[in-house]
């Protein structure tokens, strides 16, 4: 079976075993057998939590879904904390509240634009509890090791699309936003807060793209506009296979920061919620992104930080991350 067919079969089996019916014909009389040993795997650590099949799946595809990882009780508490923020009952320091450019009606507060995402909730004790859940951290350790930093926190509240398709999130690589390395010691945990389908805008991923390099990003030229900070990959191959990650409440996907991913429109009448955290090994280090493809996001983040904190002196990209990073397990070594 060809490598491409192997990968597609693995993806389909991971999402729904009933779909894994890919076939390929040999083009020669030669049969090649690949033997993997755990110590040869690049992207995961051997700590007996992930099965070998799960590790091989992540190795090939750059993501793995763990079913029913976060309890419904915890998710309901996170939903309540988000609602309090939307109602302006609390205002955690450093929180960035984002609203859709085209959505006029708020979910909780009449006559206000809808809150579609909050970032940097590290000062909200209830929401940040997500980043410290033992059931999440035990999997994070499989990817980044024992010393773990929570670097980037989000709760995404994808709104019903208003007809201008602004509820889409362009395909992108998360590493575009991060001035720290090494890339293989960063992972995102993304948990569905309700049933997530193609109809309400589930994640779409391009399996295997984590094995590539960081590509150039910028705002896509979309009719109807695009939300602030929603950069997209430039010049990727549109023919690459895609997988849609339909998930149930509590399911959690862990994925590599080079994996190209995004999400489609929410075509339902309700808001679609997910909570996430990007983790990095505390042994990671900051880099200078000057003269790289990340210069444009560095400038945008710097401008936001100046407005947010009222600082007029030069702010380094890495300073905005050092301010937000929190140790959640082990020892803070470098970040």
| Largest sheet data | 8 strands, antiparallel
> What kind of oligomer do you see?
single chain
Q: What is the 3D form? A: globular
Number of separate strands: 16
> Could you tell me the radius of gyration in angstroms?
20 Å
The SS-based structural class is: alpha+beta
The termini sit apart by: 43 Å
> Low-confidence runs (pLDDT<50, min 5 residues)?
17-34
Query: If you average the pLDDT, what whole number results?
Result: 84
Strand content: 15-25%
Relative helix content: 10-25%
- What is the number of helices? 7
Q: Which H/E pattern describes the elements?
A: HHEHEEHHEEEEEEEEEEEEHHE
Structural overview:
About 25% of the residues lie in helices and about 20% in strands. With about 325 residues, it is α+β, with helices and mostly antiparallel strands. The protein is globular, with a radius of gyration of 20 Å. Mean pLDDT is about 85; it is low at about 15-35.
């Amino acid at each position: 079976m060809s490598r491409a067919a192997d990968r597609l079969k693995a993806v389909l089996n991971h999402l729904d075993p009933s779909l894994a019916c890919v076939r390929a014909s040999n083009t020669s009389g030669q049969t090649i057998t690949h033997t993997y040993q755990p110590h040869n795997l690049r992207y995961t650590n051997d700590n007996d939590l992930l099965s070998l099949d799960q590790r091989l799946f992540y190795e090939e595809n750059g993501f793995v879904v763990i079913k029913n990882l976060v309890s419904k009780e915890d998710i309901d508490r996170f939903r309540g904390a988000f609602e309090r923020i939307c109602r302006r009952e609390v205002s955690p320091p450093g929180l960035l509240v984002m609203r859709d450019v085209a959505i006029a009606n708020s979910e909780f507060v009449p006559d206000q634009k809808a809150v579609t995402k909050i970032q940097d909730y590290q000062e909200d004790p209830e929401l940040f509890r997500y980043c410290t859940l033992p059931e999440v951290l035990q999997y994070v350790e499989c990817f980044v090791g024992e010393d773990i930093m929570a670097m980037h926190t989000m709760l995404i509240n994808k709104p019903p699309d208003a007809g201008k398709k602004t509820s889409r999130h362009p395909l992108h690589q998360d590493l575009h936003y991060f001035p720290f390395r090494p890339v293989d010691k960063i992972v995102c945990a993304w948990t569905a807060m309700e049933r997530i389908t193609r109809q309400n805008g589930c994640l779409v991923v391009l399996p295997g793209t984590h094995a590539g390099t960081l590509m150039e990003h910028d705002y896509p030229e979309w009719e109807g506009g695009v939300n602030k900070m929603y950069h997209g990959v430039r010049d990727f191959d549109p023919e690459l296979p895609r997988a849609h990650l339909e998930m149930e409440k509590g399911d959690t996907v862990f994925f590599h920061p080079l994996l190209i991913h995004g999400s489609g429109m929410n075509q339902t009448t309700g808001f679609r919620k997910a909570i996430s955290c990007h983790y990095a090994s505390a042994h990671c280090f900051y880099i200078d992104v000057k003269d790289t493809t990340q210069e444009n996001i560095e400038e945008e983040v710097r401008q936001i930080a100046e407005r947010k904190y009222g600082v007029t002196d030069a702010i380094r990209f890495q300073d905005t991350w050092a301010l937000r990073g929190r140790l959640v397990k082990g020892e803070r070594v470098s970040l």
